[in-house]
């Protein structure tokens, strides 16, 4: 199999993404994550000149649980990653995997026409991006 046979980000991205305001407290964010069955949230831009942010389970583990902070007293904006590297839906998954490796990331929002249309991760690249896994 050559890289030309592999899919595009749009073929493996998760299309259901949850966006939150950065002022939301972490406890409320965790409840949203649990309800949506996700390990990441997109943090909305404050205005057109702002950038997207992202909150991962690992951010909560490192910056709230690991530091013995009360999740109801920490706001998402205090621990989120911002700005985040976004990828295009038509990017080849091999380039997306290289980008993840080059920047030490494991998740990226998928942006098209200035809005978030999905989320991609190593997990999704491997399980949903490689062809012939259903054989």
Structure description:
There is one protein chain. This protein has a three-stranded mixed β-sheet. Strands 4-5 form a two-stranded antiparallel ribbon. The chain is an alpha+beta fold and 135 residues long. The chain has six helices and five strands; from the N terminus they run αβαββαααββα. The longest helix is centred in the N-terminal third of the chain and has 11 residues, at 26-36. The protein has a single domain (3-129), classed as CBS-domain, CATH 3.10.580.
**Fraction of residues in β-strands:** 15-25%
Indicate the multimeric state.
single chain
Helix content: 25-40%
How many strands, which pairing sense, and closed or not: the largest β-sheet?
A: 3 strands, mixed
CATH topology value: CBS-domain
Radius of gyration from CA coordinates: 16 Å
Which structural class do you get from the secondary structure elements?
A: alpha+beta
The arrangement of helices and strands along the chain is HEHEEHHHEEH
CATH superfamily: CBS-domain
Question: Can I get a quick summary?
Answer:
The chain is α+β, with helices and mostly antiparallel strands.
């Amino acid at each position: 199999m050559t890289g030309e046979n592999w899919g595009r980000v749009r073929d493996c991205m998760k299309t259901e993404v949850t966006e939150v305001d950065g002022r939301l407290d972490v406890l409320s964010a965790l409840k949203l994550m649990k309800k949506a069955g996700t390990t990441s949230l997109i943090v909305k831009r404050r205005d057109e000149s702002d950038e997207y942010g992202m909150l991962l389970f690992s951010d909560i583990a490192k910056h709230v649980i690991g530091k013995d902070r009360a999740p109801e007293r920490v706001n998402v904006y205090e621990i989120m990653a911002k700005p985040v590297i976004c990828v295009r839906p038509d990017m080849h998954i091999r380039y997306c995997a290289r980008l993840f490796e080059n920047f030490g990331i494991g998740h990226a929002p998928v942006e098209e026409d200035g809005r978030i249309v999905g989320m991609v991760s190593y997990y999704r690249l491997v399980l949903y991006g490689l062809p012939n896994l259903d054989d």
